[in-house]
Each structure stands twice: as C-alpha cells, then as structure tokens.
C-alpha cells in the first residue's frame, strides 16, 4: 500500500509564508508572530521558524514580533 505524502516543497511553503506575512501586515498594520503565521499557513511553528531562517539566509527578511534582543520602549518602539 502506497503511503500518502502530505509534505510540500520548501518553495511552496515559503511562498505561503510570504503571502501570509504580507496579508497580516496589510490587515493588522503590525508584524505577525510565528504563532500568527502558523495559524495562517497551517503548519507547525518549527516549520515556520525553519523556513524563515532559510529565507533570511537567501536575503529575504520577514520581520516577526516576539523576542528581540535590545532595549526598546514598549509604547513607541524607540531605543532607550
């Protein structure tokens, strides 16, 4: 019996992540979290993180909200 494969090529997943990121930015006006992208694309958070890492290595930066090193004012996003 043949096993059904549910995986998609990385390029397809990355395109879906990019679309979800763009849509979120347009609708919400803010950067999405990895969890937001997970819900939009329908994959695990580890998949989103891996694909974002690969996209950044290629030079495509898709900023996400979450932990960021450095000190910022929580209300204005300015450096302290």
How is this structure best described in words?
The protein is globular, with a radius of gyration of 15 Å. It has a domain at 10-57: Arc Repressor Mutant, subunit A (Orthogonal Bundle), CATH 1.10.10. The protein starts with 9 loop residues before the first helix and ends in a 23-residue tail after the last helix. It has helices at residues 10-28, 34-41, 45-57. With 80 residues, it is mainly alpha-helical.
Write out key terms for the chains shown:
mainly alpha; Arc Repressor Mutant, subunit A; globular; 80 residues; 3 helices; 50% helix; single chain
The CATH architecture of the domain at 10-57? Orthogonal Bundle
DSSP E strands, number:
0
Described by strand count, sense and barrel closure, the largest sheet is:
none
Please state the average pLDDT score: 82
Element pattern in H and E = HHH
- In CATH, what is the class of the domain at 10-57? Mainly Alpha
CATH topology of the domain at 10-57: Arc Repressor Mutant, subunit A
């Amino acid at each position: 019996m043949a096993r059904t494969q549910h995986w998609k090529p990385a390029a397809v997943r990355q395109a879906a992540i990019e679309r979800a990121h763009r849509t979120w930015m347009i609708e919400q006006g803010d950067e999405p979290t990895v969890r937001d992208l997970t819900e939009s694309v329908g994959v695990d958070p580890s998949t989103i993180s891996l694909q974002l890492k690969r996209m950044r290595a290629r030079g495509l930066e898709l900023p996400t909200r979450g932990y960021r090193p450095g000190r910022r004012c929580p209300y204005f996003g300015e450096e302290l």
